[in-house]
Design brief:
This protein is of the alpha/beta class. It is built from ten helices and twelve strands. It has a five-stranded mixed sheet with strand order 9-8-10-7-11, sandwiched between helices. It has a three-stranded parallel sheet with strand order 4-1-5. Strands 2-3 form a two-stranded antiparallel ribbon. Helix 2 packs antiparallel against helix 10. The chain is globular and about 55 Å long.
Length: 272
């Protein structure tokens, strides 16, 4: 059964129940407008997502968007929420609290949408929807730095984001003598590099690409294939019905071309 069919069935069932109650002569309180019965949600009728903002091009503040946020992750999640007949709300949280599952276990949000790489370690605490994006890691440096690869970082300072696969890759592959400095988010990483407080950033390729587009005095000198895929994260065994519905909606959005439209709006390059 598709997500749309499920919603239609629930609506018919709800209407039939209400008619039966009215016909019985008893006074019952009708369900609140927008109430959903298919999923256990933090706020009824609303899909609440936790995200670490900003992390362009995946999540940025956007007052023109229905949720107040946009980016590839958020736009895709908005399409899923629309498909499920739900509003979308976004809570800005730290990535470390999100990838560890803390905010999900606490019931602050229904899922995490923040370029979260699916790893075995995270799967111990989180359920992941089907992957929706494949990514690479990359090294961003000032154009005049003389740094050409990760091997040139010996004696230098590289910034990484706390709790990320970029941090793990740096720890495993940077030469001895590299100073690794952790930051809560890209919102602190990028200004630190611009201010000369660190010599490089190692993190997800699409984010570093945006930085080179914003400031051409910085360049990406290396990309690293790490077989990473992003997924929307839910509390472990906490909401299997919602997980199934998200997966089914994702499949439908791929089939009808909506996913590709959203993807192209952020990642398509000109053939010229």
């Amino acid at each position: 059964m598709s997500a749309r069919q499920l919603r239609t069935g629930l609506a018919v069932l709800g209407a039939a129940t209400l008619l039966a109650a009215c016909g019985g002569g008893e006074t019952d309180t009708p369900a609140a407008e927008g109430e959903t019965t298919g999923f256990d949600l933090v706020s009824d009728g609303t899909l609440t997502a936790c995200s670490d903002v900003p992390y362009p091009p995946f999540e940025v503040e956007d007052t023109s968007a229905p949720s107040g946020y946009s980016g590839f992750d958020i736009d895709l999640l908005q399409a899923i929420a629309d498909d499920l007949g739900l509003e979308l709300a976004v809570e800005d949280v730290s990535f470390d609290a999100l990838q560890s599952g803390t905010v999900l276990a606490a019931g602050q949000c229904d899922l995490g949408a923040s370029a979260i790489t699916i790893t075995e370690e995270r799967q111990a605490n989180l359920d992941f929807a089907e992957p929706y994006y494949d990514s690479l890691q990359s090294l961003l440096v000032p154009a005049d730095s003389g740094i050409e690869s990760i091997e040139d970082l010996e004696g230098m300072t590289v910034g990484v984001q706390q709790g990320t696969t970029g941090k793990s890759y740096t720890e495993e592959n940077a030469p001895e003598g590299t100073e690794i400095v952790e930051y809560p988010s890209d919102g602190e990483l990028w200004p630190a590099l611009q201010a000369g407080q660190i010599d490089a950033i190692l993190q997800d390729l699409p984010v570093n690409v945006v930085h080179t587009q914003d400031d051409d005095s910085f360049v990406i000198v290396e990309e690293y294939a790490t077989d990473e895929s992003y997924g929307f994260a839910l509390s472990k065994d906490g909401n299997p019905e919602l997980l199934d519905a998200i997966n089914e909606s994702l499949a439908g959005l791929r089939e009808d071309g909506t996913y590709q439209e959203i993807y192209d709006s952020y990642f398509a390059t000109d053939a010229s």
